[in-house]
Design a protein that fits this description.
Elements: H1 4-38, H2 44-72, H3 115-143, H4 150-172, H5 178-183, H6 191-209, H7 230-250, E1 252-257, E2 267-271, E3 276-277, H8 279-300, H9 305-319, H10 328-353, H11 361-379, H12 395-423, H13 430-435, H14 446-462
Antiparallel strand pairs: 1-2, 2-3
Helix pairs in contact: 1-2, 1-3, 1-7, 2-3, 2-4, 3-4, 3-6, 4-6, 4-12, 6-11, 6-12, 7-9, 8-9, 8-10, 9-10, 9-11, 10-11, 11-12
Amino acid sequence: MNTDIGALTTIFTEFYYFVCVVLMFFIHVGFCLYEVGVSREKNKMHTLMKNAMLIPLVTVTFFFFGWWIYFACVNGPGITGGLKDARWAWPWSEVMGAHMGGKLADGTLTLPADAAIWVRTNGVFWGCFALFSCTAGSILSGAVIERIRTWVLWIFTVLVGSVTWVLAAAWGWSPDGWMVKLLGYHDAYAAGVIHALCGAACVGMLIPLGARVGRFKRDGTPRVFPPRNTWLVVIGLFLIYAGFWGFYASCNIPIVDVDPSKERVVFSATTIYGTPTTLSAVTFNFLLALCGGLLAGYLASKGDAYWAFSGGLAGVIATSPGNDLYHPLQAFLIGGFVVYCLYRFHYWMERKFKIDDAVGAVAVHGVGGFLGLIVSGFVLWGSASSSGATPRVTPWGQAAGALICLALGFLPVFFLTLLFKKLGVLRIPLEVELAGLDHGELSAEQEQVRDLVTVELETVRQRPL
């Protein structure tokens, strides 16, 4: 910060990301309300606490190793090289704490950007990523409500929130990532590296976990468990919309000289890849994608509030790979088309495979993110994937990146879930599920629980639902 302009740029950038962190907290308020609204009365407090407590768990683990993974693992294993030196992201580094931007005590420490601006913005930029990680955990939390052991879910949220999605981000959501350099992968607002990946992770949990008691009839026909409180669901989704503005803004770098010729100074916002965009583009495309998703969800579900508002969220997710470049009408049409497809997919998956996804997370996040990437490969064909001399965006590059995200989300979680199931610790006891987790896991009064449900349990065992 040797000039007044340099100081202003640094302080503005720091404040910009700080505001994004504040806005992004609304995502987690929304997820808590949303999941509590879906849960039945006997599970509402347990649902709230298991979702809320993943925030400190994921944030702490992201501080200790998630932030380092993002910078150190941009090269794929055995693909483009080994680990990068990212000592500034070690939890004991001097820049992983309060720092005024002066001379570094470690004279050998090389930072990824101008030292003055990096040490001042490291904390707020880390905070944005940490809240991305907590979002990943909340996506998993909703799909498996009312049947999974709390501590098991928390292990999955740490695995996905501080490891696997961060790997995907290092590979495909960084200008130095190997998926960007080799495939031309472009995912400006993380449809693949967060949403598709987390949707696949939900499938990895749901298959071994099984459905809630009574969710399917003897002939396999699904029973509807209506939301306990539709108002909480709707308000929660509106708060997630609000938090997504912070998410989108934090995916941009606010002030960058984007003239590669250096013949003149041209400042713009850029994506995380360094490609120019504007907040006006974000505003146009976010709102049109939201509207396309809302309308499609309303029409496909014949006015069901749950799917109409979930459709709005899914519309934004579906357009996230290219909302830095789309025309607003493209965002509107893509959002609507993908939401119609994922609505049909949800019920097909439920009937065909008897998968009990309590909040539609597989469809909204997984299918929405995956189809959004596939569509973006055709719509953005030939566009610059990043600011470097990397391959251009292609349908096959986007498809390959989407499949990598699905595999990275599904495989680790699926095999770990199978292990927990084999050990007998994956699912809550039947009597606790029948009585409700608020009376079982939270109070730990197991004898009382057994007394409360003895008759119901015997009925279930003699005549399965």
